[in-house]
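Dock hypoxanthine; give full complex structure.
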Amino acid sequence: MPTPHNNAKKGDIAETVIMPGDPLRAKFIAENYLENPVCYNEVRGMYGYTGTYKNKRVSVQGSGMGMPSMAIYSWELFSEYEVKNIIRTGTAGAVSDNVNLRDIIIAMSASTNSAYASQYNLPGTYAPTASWELLSNAVKVTENKGTDFHVGNIFSSDTFYDDADSLAKWKKMGVLGIEMETAALYMNAARAGKNALCILTVSDCPLKNLSTTAEERQSGFRNMMEIALETAVRI
Ligand code: HPA
């Protein structure tokens, strides 16, 4: 059934969906990596495509920026379209001193300042966590790539421009990087009984005022996409 945000019909979307934040990245992946890609959504420009990669049926769709946007699209994929696995591919700011520009971060867990978990009325603090099956497969694929990578806790923030600069405090807790979507994705997956993973490339170091060039972002992005697609083939 189409939703207010997605025109796809049941069956149009594969069991595994790769979700970059930027819908134009989804279009790029479909056109450059998938065989026979078919566009299933253009509502609000949030492109979604289904095709095959190494004979595996895979979809790729934008999530938009921030947890509310990611939460809408991923919840609909899980609950309306029988999607089983969502792999987010995004960019992050480095928080830990051990994380450098262009490194890959595989998010084992996602701390957050979002109120997203309040809807569950839990009597404590929920820990949004990746799917072990997706995580362990992504680690195996990344080990074969020779790229520097880190696996651990990230911070999903509601703010990109943070007035209070809370990053130093998250750094003390061993957080690797900052982005804006993963905690909601992991909570949706848990609530729906499905699987999710987030793979990030480090595009900037906000604590050191460093950022990658457009060209570096593009090649880092290709590396990350290949890791996500190879992980999708293995599950
Ligand atoms: N903050 C939040 N999200 C991000 C950043 C950042 O510094 N870099 C890439 N995504």
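Observed: The chain is about 30% helix and 30% strand.
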